[in-house]
Design goal:
By secondary structure, the chain is mostly helical. The structure holds iron/sulfur cluster (2 copies). One iron/sulfur cluster binds next to helix 2 and helix 3. One iron/sulfur cluster (SF4) binds next to helix 2 and helix 3.
Length: 395
């Protein structure tokens, strides 16, 4: 027997793709029309034809080593042109969901992407924990609601109802825990992409600025070229500014704006901007999905609804909270505050490390690995050319 490695199909991957998502890799007959129309496909990373084949055959190991599913920004050109209606754009999207569930070592992501009941269940458990935190007596929980006896009902005293110091500590613990979970999942992704490669560390260092630029701007999306893609990229960028500002305000500046009384603070104006962005962007996304306006929105997995719906409810409850606070409606403000946290905390806890939000880290990471590999290849070619020139000169 030779030492040739036998490649076995992963039946779980095949079943996952059969049961989830709107693409059908089985229909593909490998004509490659999709790859030829894709404006982001390159010689080094030709997609989506190859990935549809890997999906058809259940070749999980090859998919783990391939950054291509993350290099696709779902413009949908390939799906429009596929003669077999295999929907390769959606298969790429479904592979991103599948890969996200593989990177997550806790296994929660895997359960949530396969079952709406699991996703709803996890969200409800976290929401119930927040309600308990407010309602249990002080000796068991934060006892915030129990404290409302000391929060006056004549004027809004939010800091008396939910002391900013306590909420702030909770915020920071949550931010650190989420960052650790997300980073550990990203480390698994990086390991899967780079294990077995022999690229000098200096190449990884030299491409770090590219990782940062792609992480902040996702400007590769803009290179897609179609008018839909450019609009979607700019809208995405707009949305990202909204939740980055909101996240920073809540995690870093909470004690500055969660104060007693009804006055405004400089953070209020940033909050107005972020809320406006979140509300308008999520309405836009939801309308696109309802109307199936573009190829990208033609099929919606339940996880495609969950994140914009939760973001929309977070922004809406935040606006109501603010209106009730500046209108000096104490009891309504206190209850709306609790409802706001019951929406925001589960959304962050579930979506950042295990759900859709994680693509904000995975995508630039894949682009980064692709850039490192390209640099290493270029270097090797240059070295070979220099070596050949030297040999020719000495001959
Ligand atoms: S265009 Fe359709 S049939 Fe042709 S390779 Fe792509 S997915 Fe397969
Ligand atoms: S959806 Fe667009 S970017 Fe993605 S593979 Fe198809 S053509 Fe390429």
């Amino acid at each position: 027997m030779s030492g040739r490695k036998i490649i076995k199909p992963d039946l779980e991957l095949i079943n996952y793709l059969n049961e989830n998502g709107g693409g059908d890799p089985k229909k593909c007959y490998q004509c490659a029309t999709c790859t030829s129309v894709c404006r982001l496909s390159t010689e080094e990373y030709g997609f989506p034809r190859r990935q549809v084949l890997l999906a058809q055959w259940g070749l999980k190991e090859q998919l783990m080593k391939d950054p291509s599913p993350w290099l696709c920004f779902y413009c949908g050109d390939c799906s429009k042109r596929c003669p077999r209606k295999s929907n390769p754009g959606e298969t790429m999207m479904n592979l991103r969901r599948y890969l996200t569930s593989l990177y997550d070592w806790t296994g929660l992501s895997r359960l949530m992407y396969r079952s709406v009941f699991w996703e709803m269940g996890v969200l409800l458990v976290v929401a119930a924990a927040i309600v308990l935190m407010f309602t249990l007596p002080r000796s068991f929980g934060f006892g915030l609601l129990a404290q409302s006896g000391s929060a006056p009902l004549s004027t809004v005293m939010l800091d008396k109802f939910a002391p900013a110091g306590i909420v702030d500590i909770g915020d920071r613990i949550m931010a650190v825990a989420l960052a650790l979970l997300l980073l550990s999942n990203a480390a698994r992704m990086l390991y899967g992409l780079t294990s077995g490669e022999n690229i000098p560390f200096s190449f990884y260092i030299s491409q770090l600025p590219y990782f940062v630029i792609q992480g902040i701007t996702q400007k590769q999306w803009g290179r897609c070229g179609s008018s839909d893609s450019t609009t979607n990229w700019l809208r995405h960028l707009f949305l990202v500014t909204g939740y980055v500002i909101m996240f920073t305000l809540v995690v870093v500046f909470l004690p500055s704006f969660q104060v007693n009384g009804i006055g405004l603070h400089w953070t209020s104006y940033l909050g107005y901007y972020a809320t406006l962005v979140l509300l308008s962007s999520t309405v836009w996304i939801l309308v696109d999905r309802i109307k199936k306006r573009t190829e990208m929105h033609a099929f919606s997995h339940f996880s495609d609804w969950m994140f914009p719906v939760l973001l929309f409810l977070s922004a809406l409850s935040g606006i109501l909270l603010h209106i009730f606070r500046i209108s000096n409606m104490p009891l309504t403000t206190y209850y709306t505050y609790m409802i706001h946290l019951v929406i925001v905390v589960p959304m962050l806890v579930v979506e950042v490390p295990f759900g859709k939000w994680s693509h904000l880290l995975y995508r630039p990471l894949a682009l980064y690995v692709a850039a490192v590999r390209n640099k290493a290849k270029e270097f090797q070619v240059e070295r070979q050319i220099a070596g050949s020139a030297k040999t020719a000169a000495s001959a």
